[in-house]
Amino acid sequence: MAKFKIATPAGASFTTAGGGYEYEMEPLEGIDAEIVEGPTDEDGFIKFARDADVIYGKGIRFTRKIVESLPQQCRAIVLGSVGVDSVDVAAATARGMPVTNCPDTFIEEVADHAMMLLLAGHRRTIEQDRMVREGRWREGRPALLQIPRIMGQTLGLISFGHVARAVAKRARPFGLRIIAYDPYIEELVMVEHGVLPATLEEVLSQSDFVSMHAPATPEAEGMLMEKHFRLMKKTAVFINTGRGPTVQEAALIKALQEGWIAHAGLDVLEIEPPGNNNPILSMANVTLSAHTASASARFDPARKRHVGRELALVLSGRWPMSCVNPAVLLNSQLRRWQPVSMERGPNS
């Protein structure tokens, strides 16, 4: 039996039960640790993880009940995703337990996908494809004659994290004017990226394309509602490659049905996968993908190796690279850690 037990739900999220953890184990070479799969139900996992040294979190929601039941020896919850909405971070922080994510592993892929949805929505790619397949060849050009060229239009970004910055970099060569709203980012940071700071109302009312990048935090849940979609241009295209719950989907559906906005490109939905009765599935003015923006050939290797590096750090008694917990709330626990350097803080 290995010295350290890394507990993880079986067959959850991006893996299959017993599918192997070769990539995760690469950085763990020389550390007597084993990744052990357990139940995916709450009570079953609590019982299974009672002797865990670290949690490899994927697939299930790590509720306050699960977090508070973890043994004192458990050092961290390590996630293989950018989002941390699957963990009650406040509960983990309260007991001094770091939660880590993969903050920069999929940035380029998601930015590419956002630009794909923007361009597909602007040029009505799905509708154009359908016209050709249905023998309506002559309808294609008249439909696009109603749409202005992309050069000179405005792209508005809601949140200005890594993905939004990468989207701005891709959008600039198309001749788009770019504005952004993010109350947590200094305006000078936006200016350095060639982006003009704006209020949320300005982003919504001025933009021809609105791209949503807010993370799934309690503060951002349901952030965009009916009053916000009413501010947007009737010709606007709305893109969301962030998290579905940041948008009140009923309000978005109403906006699309009643013509408050022209089109939506969505990689994420409020409930995934959507039920067959979701009106979005039958809307001609919506381009959809199945929460696949981050997917590419490098997805699993990059994500899993990052997880392995974090596991190796915490099991070696060092501070993880991508801790999302606020440092001020962890100060009382820092004595049990030996950070590699003062520069690698909990928000690095």
UniProtKB/TrEMBL annotation:
<dbReference type="GO" id="GO:0030267">
    <property type="term" value="F:glyoxylate reductase (NADPH) activity"/>
</dbReference>
<comment type="similarity">
    <text>Belongs to the D-isomer specific 2-hydroxyacid dehydrogenase family.</text>
</comment>
<dbReference type="GO" id="GO:0006564">
    <property type="term" value="P:L-serine biosynthetic process"/>
</dbReference>
<dbReference type="InterPro" id="IPR050223">
    <property type="entry name" value="D-isomer_2-hydroxyacid_DH"/>
</dbReference>
<keyword id="KW-0560">Oxidoreductase</keyword>
<feature type="domain" description="D-isomer specific 2-hydroxyacid dehydrogenase NAD-binding">
    <location>
        <begin position="115"/>
        <end position="293"/>
    </location>
</feature>
<dbReference type="GO" id="GO:0005829">
    <property type="term" value="C:cytosol"/>
</dbReference>
<dbReference type="InterPro" id="IPR036291">
    <property type="entry name" value="NAD(P)-bd_dom_sf"/>
</dbReference>
<protein>
    <submittedName>
        <fullName>2-ketogluconate reductase</fullName>
    </submittedName>
</protein>
<dbReference type="GO" id="GO:0016618">
    <property type="term" value="F:hydroxypyruvate reductase [NAD(P)H] activity"/>
</dbReference>
<dbReference type="GO" id="GO:0003714">
    <property type="term" value="F:transcription corepressor activity"/>
</dbReference>
<keyword id="KW-0520">NAD</keyword>
<dbReference type="GO" id="GO:0047545">
    <property type="term" value="F:(S)-2-hydroxyglutarate dehydrogenase activity"/>
</dbReference>
<dbReference type="InterPro" id="IPR006140">
    <property type="entry name" value="D-isomer_DH_NAD-bd"/>
</dbReference>
<dbReference type="GO" id="GO:0051287">
    <property type="term" value="F:NAD binding"/>
</dbReference>
<dbReference type="InterPro" id="IPR043322">
    <property type="entry name" value="CtBP"/>
</dbReference>
<dbReference type="Pfam" id="PF02826">
    <property type="entry name" value="2-Hacid_dh_C"/>
</dbReference>
<dbReference type="GO" id="GO:0004617">
    <property type="term" value="F:phosphoglycerate dehydrogenase activity"/>
</dbReference>
